[in-house]
Amino acid sequence: MPVHSFILNGKRVNVDCADDVRLLWVLNDLLGVYGPKYGCGVGVCQACTCHINGKAFNTCSVPVSQIKSTDQITTIEGLAASVGKPLHPVQQAWLDYDVAQCGYCQPGQIMTAVAKIKQIKAQGRAVTDADLDEIRNVCRCGTYPRIRAAIKAASTKM
Ligand code: FES
Ligand code: FES
């Protein structure tokens, strides 16, 4: 089988699997990285959200063959190291606002939030309710009000 190579949380990884295996299953089943979660498998729930070169994407929807050897994939496990701190400001805000309930959706929520805040900051403006309305991550526990408050708080610290 072909070998696929990319940078995962700052370290090069090589995986031997078929071209059409989606990245989520490469992470979960072949690399033992369990932060990205399987919810729907069809690009709807966003539980599997990670970053590719700093942008949020659904790992359940991308075959590993589409990942280039130079691509930097960041999962929730590598998020804090990306800012050189014990916790990323968004993770700290999640604790401060006691966001999680069952927790299943939360890695994806946080990865989406980080990318969203960065995108808005690059435009030189503050996070608005309209920005938060664009987030499509599903939370079956209904933690949305706390997610919104934590994102607004974290955005002032990034
Ligand atoms: S598992 Fe990827 S979007 Fe639902
Ligand atoms: S915290 Fe339970 S699904 Fe979001």
3D structure, described in words:
This protein has six helices and five strands; from the N terminus they run ββαβββααααα. With 158 residues, it is α+β, with helices and mostly antiparallel strands. It has a five-stranded mixed β-sheet, with helices on both faces. 37% of the residues are buried. The model has no long low-confidence stretch (mean pLDDT 98). A hairpin with a 2-residue loop joins strand 1 and strand 2 (11-16). It has helices at residues 23-30, 76-79, 89-96, 106-122, 129-133, 144-155, and strands at residues 3-8, 11-16, 49-52, 55-58, 72-74. Helices cover 34% and strands 15% of the residues. Residues 100-106, 139-141, 143 line the site of one FE2/S2 (inorganic) cluster (FES). Residues 100-106, 139-141, 143 line the site of one FE2/S2 (inorganic) cluster.
List keywords for this structure.
158 residues; alpha+beta; five-stranded mixed β-sheet; binds FE2/S2 (inorganic) cluster
What class do helices, strands and sheet pairing give? alpha+beta
Helix coverage percent of residues?
A: 25-40%
Strand order of the largest sheet: 2-1-5-3-4
The global form is globular
Strand content: 5-15%
Report the order of strands and helices.
EEHEEEHHHHH
Number of E strands: 5
Gyration radius, in Å = 15 Å
User: In this structure, how is the largest beta sheet organized?
Assistant: 5 strands, mixed
Can you list the ligands bound to this structure?
Answer: FE2/S2 (inorganic) cluster
Ends apart, CA distance between termini: 42 Å
What would the average pLDDT be, to the nearest integer? Answer: 98
